[in-house]
Amino acid sequence: MPLRRRTVLLLAAPLILAVLLALAVLVLNTADWNRARPWLNEKISLALQRPFAIRGDLTLSWAWPAAGARPPGWRAYLPMPRLLARDLHLANPASMAEQRELASVASALIEIELLPLLQQRIAVPLLRLEQPQLHLLRRADGQHNWNFAPPRESSAWRLELGTLQLGNGQLQLHDAVQQIELTASMQTLDHDALYGVAWQMQGHWKQQPVEGQGKAGAVLGLREQNRPYPLEAVLDVGGSRMAVSGTLTRPASLTSLDLQLSLSGPSMARLYALTGVLLPETPPFSTSGHLHGELGAHASRWHYQNFIGRVGQSDIAGNLEYRYGTALPRPQLTGAVQARLLRLSDLGPLIGADSNRSKQERGVAPVQPGNKVLPVEAFRKARWTALDADVHFTAGRITRDKDLPISQVDTRILMRDGVLSLEPLQFEIAGGSFNASLKLDGSGRKLADAIAADLTAHARHLHLKQLFPRIEAMQATVGEVNAEVALNAQGNSVAELLGASNGELRAVVSKGSISKLLLEEMGLNLGSVVLTKLVGDKQVQLNCLISDFTVRNGLMQTRLFAADTTDARIDVDGQVSLRNEQLNLTLRPEAKGVRIISLRAPIYLRGSFKQPDISIDKKVLALRAGGALALAVVAPVTAILPLMTSGSSDDADCAALLAARRPPVPSRNVR
C-alpha cells in the first residue's frame, strides 16, 4: 500500500470513529425507548423466572460520571448514557403468585459504560433506586419468594455493578418459619457528612417485640473493595440490646466488618436470637468490645476482642473467637475470659439456682417450688449439640453474701458434640484447695431423654474457722478439713441429678481444736455452759472428725459420722434423702469426765432442707428430770446426781475411729 494512502487511512480512522459515535449518540437520543419495554420485560422475566415489568417511561440521557461512581483511567472523562426507568415491578414466583409482589421501585437510574459492551461486559458504574418497596415472604413449609434459581443456560455476558444508591423506601418481612413480622423504613439524609440514609425497624420475633434504628452510607461501593462503608445500628429483641458502629470494608462480597460492639440483656442465653451463638444462662449483663468479622463462602470467623463488661455484680473481660463453615461439624467458640471479682450468686442461673424473681427477669418461667432448695430448672440440652466450645476461664476471687472467699479459680470449659466438661475445675477456698472434674453428657448417645453426669472432687487443707466465718464460736477453732466426692447420676436438672445420684462422700477433720462452749451447747450440758460463760471459753483438743456416706439412688446413708475430742464424743447416724430433700439424722453426744447439770439426750435433725427441725429425745430428758425430782424429795443433796454424767476418758484419733467403725443404727427411711 502506498505510503500516502496509508497516511490518509490513519488520519481518517479517528474521524470515522467519531462520526460513528456521533451517529450512535444521535440514534440513542432520538430513539423511542418505550418501544423497547416489551422486549426488556420479556428478557428480564426469563432471566429472573418471574414476571418483571417497566410500566412507566423509559428515557435516555447523557451525563458525566458521578464523583463516587467514576470508572478508572481515561474512561472517567467520557460521558455516559443514563437509562431512567420509572415504575418497575417484580412479581413473586408462580407458586406464590397470589401473594403481594416481591418488589417495586418508583424509578431506577442506570449508568452504562459503552466500550465494555464490546467485550460482552455490562458495566454499571451507578445504580440508583428511588422509593424501593420490598416484601419478603416465607411460608411455614419453607417456600420463600426471594429464591432466584440459577439461569438455565450460561451466558457469555457478565454484569459489573459499581455503586448502589437507595432513596426513601420500605422493607417488610413475613417469616412463618422463624415467626418474624418486621417492617423497616429508610429515609435519605441530606445534610449528614458521614451517613446518607437512616432506617427504623419494628415488629415481632417469636412473640417478642423487636425494635431497631440506625444509619448507613449514602453510596454502597460494590466495586471498590477497600472503600469503607459506614454503619451504625441499635437493635433490641425481647430486652436484649445490641449496638454497633463501624465500617464494612468489602460490601460486594460481604467479607469484612470492623465494628465497635455493645451488648446487654437479661441473660446471655437470650443473645441466641441476635447472634446465633449459644451462651449460658446468666444474670443481667452488659459488655462492649471490638468486633472483627471475616465472612467467606465456606468459612467465617468473628473476633470479639478486648471486651469488658459486667454479669450481675461481677466483672468480666477477655477475647473470644467464633468460627463456622462447611469444614466444621458445628460452630466453634474459643477464647479466654477473666474476672477479677465474681459473686457466687451470679453463677446461680448457670444451674437454675437463682430465685424465681431472677428467673422472671432473665425470661425463664419461675418453676422453683417454694418448699424446695435444689434447683428444678431443666438444662437446655437440646441446644448443646449446636456448638462446640473451648474457653479458658479464670477468676481472681469469688465471694458469697456470707463471706466465704474463693480465689484463684481456674477451669477449662469444653463442649464437644453435646458433652460439657469442666476439667479441671480448681480454686482456693478457706485456706485450702479444691480440685474437681465434672462431665455432663447431653448428646443423647448415653441417654436419649436425660443428661448423664460424673463428678469427682477432692478438697485439701480447708480451715474450719474460714469455712464458717459468721459463727462466732468457730473463730477460735483450729483444724483442717480434707474431703472426697465421687458421684454419678442422670437427670435433666440439679434436683434430678442429685436425686438419682450414686457414689460416696468422705470428709476428715484431723488434729485440731474446737470451741468448748460449742461442744457443751451441743451436749446440753447446762452447768458447763453456765460456767464457760462465766469464766470464758477455751479450746478443746479435737482428735478427729470423720463423715463417711454412701449414696444410692439419691439416698445418703451414714457409714461413719463421728467427732472425738478430749472432752466428748458425738456419733451421728441416719439418712439424708437428696430426692425428697428430707433429713433424718440422730446425734448422740457422750461426755468424757464429769458434767454438772447435764440434760444430755439424743438430738434429732429431721424435716426438710428448706425447714430443718432440731429436737431432743423427750423420753430420755423426762426420765432424767423425773429421777432428779424424786430424789429431791428423799435426799435434796443428791438431787443433782442424775444430772451429772461421767464418761470414758479414752481419747481416739482418726485411726481408732475407723477401726471402731460399726454398722449404722437403723433409722426411719426418709425416701
TrEMBL record:
The AsmA domain, residue ranges: 179-559
Pfam families: AsmA (PF05170)
Spans traversing the lipid bilayer: none
PANTHER family: ASMA FAMILY PROTEIN YHJG (PTHR30441:SF9), DUF748 DOMAIN-CONTAINING PROTEIN (PTHR30441)
Protein's recorded name: AsmA family protein
